[in-house]
Give the backbone structure.
Amino acid sequence: MIIAVDGPTASGKGTIAKALARHFGLPHLDTGLLYRAVGRQVEVDGGNPDDPADALAACAFPDALLADPDLRSEATGGLASRVSVHPGVRHALYERQRQFALQPGGAVLDGRDIGTVIAPEASAKLFVIASVAARAQRRFLEMQAQGREVSLAEIAADLEARDRRDRERAEAPLRAAPDAVELDTSALGKEAAIALAIALVEKLTAKA
Ligand code: C5P
């Protein structure tokens, strides 16, 4: 059973994917972390994230980098979104994601192109969305809890810039697969969103 969870930044897809993995007893891969590691490695190498050759060289990041808590920062998210437009980077990260999806017993992967490119044969595809206002508010509360001072307007502008880049890139743009089910978490709390996702996956996999 392969479960694909795609959607924009701060839509709730990561939380939902982790909960689905727990519920169905499957391993989970946050594919955004791979792009974040490439973005961070370009920075470490002193390269330019917009340069395809620099970004491709950074795909050889050491595995230990995936455990670095700095990967979760907004700044690294921005770098990830810049390196992820390069087709060479997407191809370099493809095999690792594909192998994870194909492991015996199945897997849950979350990202932007799981249902369209990495695992088009997935038995359940969710496309998680939420309004910019709801997503910005969630990020704002998260950052406040970490004691970081950022305005709601700045966060919303950053989310919109990242969404635009992810949707408009030529290679594997963010879009729902034709057979994906949309889940709008704008008005849902965490537990309600998780319960709905589990119910949807149960329904989708029962049909398969
Ligand atoms: O999901 P997360 O915010 O960690 O992803 C960071 C960035 O990595 C995204 O904005 C997107 O540009 C890129 N990404 C991608 N394809 C994926 C996962 C992430 O292009 N499957």
Summary: DSSP finds nine helices and five strands in the chain. Residues 9, 31-32, 35-36, 77, 80-81, 84, 111-113, 162, 166 surround cytidine-5'-monophosphate (CB under 6 Å). The chain has a mean pLDDT of 95.
